[in-house]
Amino acid sequence: MAVKIKFLGGAKTVTGSSHLVTAGKTEILLDAGLFQGHRDAFYTVNTTFNYNPRTINAMVLSHAHIDHCGNIPNLIKKGLRCKIYATAATKDLANLMLIDSGKIQEEDVRYVNKINKRLGLALRKPLYTAKEASRATKIFRSISYNQKFCIARDICATITDAGHILGSGIIILDIKDGERSLRLGYAVDLGRRDLPLLNDPVIPKGLDYLIMESTYGGRSHRPIDEAQSKLREAVSRAIRRGGKVLIPAFTLERTQEVVYFLGELLKEKLIPSVPIYVDSPLATDITDLFEYHMDSLNDKTRQAFSRGDNPFELLNLRFIREQKDSKALNIDRRPMIIIAGSGMCESGRMLHHLQNNIEDSRNMILVVGYMARDTLGRRIVEKLPFVRIFGVEYELNAEVVVINAFSGHADQGELLEFVTGSLPLKKIFLVHGEPDQSQALYDILNQKGLDVSIPDKDEEVLLK
Ligand SMILES: [Zn+2]
Ligand SMILES: [Zn+2]
After folding, report:
1. I want to staple 80 with a disulfide (CB 3.0 to 4.6 A). Which of 9, 48, 75, 147 is the partner?
2. How far is the CA of 390 from the centre of ligand 1 (A)?
C-alpha cells in the first residue's frame, strides 16, 4: 500500500500546522492548527481544505497551542467525525484554548461588522463561535504518554513527551505494510531541556521518517537559567525606581514559567516584595490545570505539589478574572508586576495596561516571548519612538527589556541532537519555520549527508 504525507499547513511558515498521512485507504490527520495572519488571509487559509474532513479516519493532536489545534471546531463543522487522540492535559487545555479562540473571533467579527455595516459591505461570520468550540473536545480520546494505541488496522500510534508545554507530545506512527514496517515521527513542536516545570523531550528511537519543526533552526538559545537572572535584574531595577513591570506573556506555559521564576526569586528574597498580578481569566484556568496533569511535570514540580507547596500560590500573587479588577490596576500607583495575556500585544488586557503605562519612563515592558512581524509587540521590541494603541499614538518611554532565554522550542543544537538520536532516518521534513530558519537547519543536516526537504504547502510525498 502507498504511504504518503501531504503537508497541509505550517509548511514554510510557523502557524497553521496540519499534515495528512495516508496509508492505503486510511487517512490520519496530525494536528489541525489555525493559520494566524491578517483578517482576510486568516479566513481564506483556514477555510480552504485540500482534503475532505469527512473521510479522515483518525486524528492525533500534538499539543494545545492554537496553531496546532485551533482549526478543529471548523473541521467538525465541515464534517470531521473521527476520534481525536491526545494526552489528557492536551484535551483539557485544548478545551480552554478553543473556547477562547471562538470568543476572540466573535469579538473580532462584531468589531468588523460594525464598520462593514456603516460602509455597506458584506457582514462576516466567525470561523466558529465559543459555543461551537466547546463541543470540540467531545470527540477527544485521552491517551497516556508511551501508551501504544491502534488507530486503524496496521497503524498504531504512541505519544511521547515533547517537553514543549503541559501535555505536549511527539507523535510516532508505526505503519505495517505486509512485510514492511515504517516508523514516522512528528516532532512539531519540540521543547528543550531543563525547562522549569516540564520533563525533557523524549528522543524516539529507530525512525524512518521525521517531520520536525524548525522555528529556531538557525539560532542558539541562551540557557534557561539566564532567564531567571535576567528577570531578577530587570524587575529589581524597575521596582527600585518605583515603576510597574508589564509582562505580556502567552497564557499557556510562558505565564506559568514566569510566575514560577518570580516565586523562586521572591522565596530567596532576590527581588523586592511587590504585588504580582496575573491578569487573565484564561491564564488562571490554565494554571489550575497544572496540578491535575502531573505526568507532564518534572520531578521537582511534582514533588512540590505533593508536599502541598503549589508553585502558583504565592503570598504576593493574585489571579485576576474580572474586568473591573483589571481596570483597578490603572489607578493603583504602587510598583507592581502585571503579567497579562496577549503574547504579542495585539489584543486582550495587556493593551489597556500598555496604554496607561507606556509613556512613563519609570515603567518597564518585559518581553519574554516571540513577537511576530507586524504586531504591536514587535514594534515595542524595535523600540519605535511612538506606537499606536486603540488608534491613538503613544510615546514609548517605558524601558523595554527583551529576555531571549525563555523559549519553549528547541534551538539548532537541540534539533540536531534530536535528529542524531532518532537515526537511522531515510528522510527529514522540516516544517513550522520561517524560510531562513528552516534553510539554516537544512544546510547543516544536508552537510551531514542526511536527506532533508522543506516541503511546500500542499506538497505530497510518497514514503518508500
Ligand atoms: Zn507549540
Ligand atoms: Zn507551533
Report:
1. 75
2. 28
Residue 164 CA to ligand 1 center (angstroms) comes to: 7
Q: Give residues whose Cβ lies within 5 Å of ion ligand 2.
A: 67, 189
List of residues 6+ apart from 163 with CB closer than 8 A: 190, 191, 192, 193, 195, 198, 199, 200, 201, 202
pLDDT exceeds 80 at position 342: no
Residue 345: what pLDDT?
83
* Ligand 1: centre distance to CA 256 (Å): 15
CATH of 3-219+408-463 among 2.40.50.140, 3.40.47.10, 3.60.15.10, 3.40.50.1820: 3.60.15.10
Span between the terminal Cα atoms of the chain, in Å? 10
The pLDDT of residue 198? 97
Residues of the chain with CATH 3.40.50.10890: 224-402
The segment(s) of the chain belonging to CATH 3.60.15.10 are 3-219+408-463
**What single string gives the DSSP state of each residue in 180-192?**
EEEEEEEESS---
- Ligand 1 centroid–CA 189 distance in Å is 5
| Pairing of the two strands 18-23 and 3-9 | antiparallel
Segment 58-92, tens digit of pLDDT: 999 999 999 999 999 999 999 999 999 999 999 99
Q: To 10 degrees, what angle do helices 281-290 and 254-267 make?
A: 70
Distance 110 CA to ligand 1 centre (A): 28
CB atoms within 10 A of CB 223: 12
- What is the pLDDT at residue 374? 80
Distance 461 CA to ligand 1 centre (A): 24
| pLDDT per position as a tens digit, 204-226 | 999 999 999 999 999 999 888 89
Q: How far apart are CA 383 and CA 435, in angstroms?
A: 25
Q: Report CA(169)–ligand 2 centroid distance (Å).
A: 12
> Helix, strand, or coil here: 274?
coil
Express each pLDDT in 21-66 by its tens digit. 999 999 999 999 999 888 888 999 999 988 999 999 999 999 999 9
Ligand nearest to the CA of 67: 2
What phi and psi, each to the nearest 5 degrees, are found at residue 146?
Answer: 65, 10
Domain covering 224-402: architecture:
3-Layer(aba) Sandwich (3.40)
Distance 65 CA to ligand 1 centre (A): 5
Of 235-239, 375-379, 448-452, 454-458, which range is least confident? Answer: 375-379
pTM (whole model) above 0.85: yes
